[in-house]
Specification:
By secondary structure, the chain is mainly α. It is 59% helix and 0% strand.
């Protein structure tokens, strides 16, 4: 599958799993989220530059800082939004042919 060869997808999946792993740690988990949230926001902004990246970094920060929302795969959703569900139509290349 072509998806698992994409480095951005793999990185996002790893960041999502790391964010979700804090739920499994009983007492320390919520405190780890306090450190993980700004790091995840920084990584999201590095992976997706521009307005989309800024908005996604804010969303991932809020998602990681709020209790009980760690199960949302924000990085994976951003990848799907950017690379699969694009709003922009693909650019059509016009080829001119001369008639001899």
């Amino acid at each position: 599958m072509r998806l698992f060869k994409d480095k951005t997808f793999i990185k996002g999946l790893a960041y999502d799993l790391a964010g979700m792993a804090t739920v499994a740690i009983p007492v320390i988990g919520p405190f780890l989220d306090l450190a993980w949230a700004p790091y995840a926001a920084k990584k999201m902004r590095e992976m997706y530059p521009g307005k989309k990246g800024k908005l996604a970094s804010v969303l991932v920060f809020i998602e990681e800082i709020l209790p009980g929302t760690d199960i949302i795969p924000t990085f994976t959703l951003m990848y799907l939004y950017t690379h699969v569900w694009k709003k922009e139509p693909s650019k059509v290349q016009i080829i001119e042919v001369e008639n001899y």
